[in-house]
Write a structure and sequence with these properties.
The protein is α+β, with helices and mostly antiparallel strands and 324 residues long. It folds into 2 domains: 135 residues, 2-Layer Sandwich (60s Ribosomal Protein L30, Chain: A); 159 residues, Alpha-Beta Complex (Phosphoribosyl-aminoimidazole Synthetase, Chain A, domain 2). It has 10 helices and 13 strands. Helix 4 crosses helix 5. The longest helix has 19 residues. The protein starts with a helix and ends in a 14-residue tail after the last strand. The structure holds adenosine-5'-diphosphate (ADP) and magnesium ion. The site of adenosine-5'-diphosphate has 14 residues, from helix 1, strand 4 and strand 5. It holds the Pfam family AIRS_C.
């Protein structure tokens, strides 16, 4: 099958269609129209087999993660997803793989109302690059740089699940309860981008980041860009029952929650005046949210506490970095 058939058979049809796309897949480039009063937010992320997902990962999970990591970046800016472009590097043409992969992309496009507007397809090692674009009303983006001393530190959802799920898949740990095991693996395979939380945080959060590398690692980006410090109460971190019931040692569970990556929850800061407002707004959408600490004036310092006492992790546990 030629590249042209592949695009026509799997990518050109079946996805969500938007009115602001004047020309989608099939020409030399896509043409889109930005609604009046909106700004475009653009992000790109690549996932590579063996680096970001295990060899033999199901195509549904690869598609989901390629889209989710990008929508999560849009969510962290407060943006509503609109357009996606997909660059695929495939070792060979496998029709059942392509069918499952493309159907997952299309189903996400309907769920999140984005349109797949183009891409590229080449032969090479399995790797997927997605560019996602979304809208925010003029100047309402939420950056990493607006946190102020006194602001409360919040996270959505629960932390550590994807990291435990990955360790399970690699047989580094065992979880005897099968429902808990499948929940944890699914949190790794199918992370939920917090799109609705992100748009709800506009004009309320002073800063926001999505947790891709681990809570502490990503908090470092916020405090450095905002030129502030932070206190984190490790005993307050939201940890799922699937972890607490199966990881016996409380410190191990907290270590996953504080340092494991790939949860794609949002970490954000809110001034005291907006605290009740945001807790109520997110609760009304059934989005779990937990207050885990506070921003301080101690620039560059993350003050970790466990039951009020100072706590330190071994430095090797503090997050994943490429090229390290
Ligand atoms: P060109 O060689 O001019 O770049 P291509 O043959 O690569 O064109 O692509 C033809 C059309 O198919 C373009 O609209 C392109 O955006 C789209 N396309 C190519 N690969 C993909 C893909 N993996 N997913 C979605 N659209 C794609
Ligand atoms: Mg091409």
């Amino acid at each position: 099958m030629k590249e042209f058939d592949l695009i026509g058979n799997y990518f050109a049809k079946g996805g969500y269609v938007r009115k602001d796309v004047l020309l989608g897949i099939g020409d030399d480039a896509a043409v889109t129209k930005v609604p009046a009063g909106q700004c475009v937010v653009t992000t790109t992320d690549t996932i590579v087999e063996g680096v970001h997902f295990l060899p033999q990962t199901a195509p549904e999970s690869i598609a989901h993660r390629a889209i989710a990591v990008n929508l999560s970046d849009l969510a962290a800016m407060g943006a509503q997803p609109a357009w996606i472009s997909l660059s695929l590097s495939l070792p060979s043409i496998n029709e059942s793989w392509l069918k499952a992969f493309s159907e997952k992309i299309h189903s996400l496009s309907h769920y999140f109302s984005f349109q797949l507007i183009g891409g590229d397809t080449v032969q090479g090692p399995l790797s997927i690059t997605v560019t996602a674009q979304g809208f925010i009303p003029d100047d309402n983006q939420i950056t990493r740089s607006g946190a102020e001393p006194g602001d409360w530190l919040f996270v959505t959802g629960s932390l550590g699940d994807a990291g435990v799920g990955l360790d399970l898949l690699q047989n580094k740990i065992t979880v005897s309860n099968p429902e808990h095991a499948s929940y944890l693996k699914n949190r790794h395979w199918f992370p939920t981008p917090r799109v609705l939380a992100g748009t709800t945080l506009r004009r309320i959060a002073t800063s926001c980041i999505d947790i891709s590398d681990g809570l502490i690692q990503d908090l470092k980006h916020v405090i450095s860009r905002s030129e502030v410090g932070a206190i984190v109460h490790l005993d307050k971190l939201p940890i799922s029952e699937a972890i607490t019931k199966n990881i016996e040692n409380g410190i191990d569970a907290i270590t996953y929650a504080a340092t494991a990556g790939d949860d794609y929850e949002l970490l954000f800061t809110v001034p005291e005046e907006q605290r009740v407002h945001i807790e109520t707004a997110l609760a009304s959408y059934n989005i779990p949210v937990t207050r885990i600490g506070q921003i301080t004036g101690a620039t560059g310092k993350i003050d970790l506490r466990l039951n009020q006492k100072p706590f330190e992790f071994e430095s090797r546990k503090l997050g994943f970095e490429h090229f390290s």
